[in-house]
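This part of the workshop introduces the protein records we will be handling. A record pairs a protein's sequence with a compact description of its fold. Backbone structure tokens are a discrete shorthand for how the chain folds in space. The question running through the whole workshop is how a given chain folds. The record below serves as our worked example for the rest of this section.
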Amino acid sequence: MNIQIINGPNLNLLGVREKSIYGDTSFEAYLEQLRTRFANITINYYQSNVEGEIINKLHEVGFSADGIVINAGAYTHTSVAIGDAIAGINTPVIEVHISNVYKREEFRHSSLLARNCKGVIAGFGMDSYRLAIENLING
């Protein structure tokens, strides 16, 4: 099984930015934990702060990966284009958020991606990624 994780803008700063919201662990450190926990599957990781690069990655893997876990960051609430890219691929996509977006600013309560995703997981910290991977594995 081949899972692609895609992180959007500012998620390269995990572990150093807004620790009260996002914690103090870098994504790279957490990724090693995921790869150890799910040693029998391949977990690929991609992060970009650029909307078009995220779309290109979705196009690249969206017909070959077994599942995609995406945290599009603020693009979740603004990008029709990323939502359209998810709609245009065959691979199931799960939208994740580290924080509970519904406890935050009102603009974060709306997702332009969710309608094209298999599901949405929010508010479980980094564990949101693990929950998404487990769902993709178990179908």
Notes: Residues 127-138 form the longest helix (12 residues).
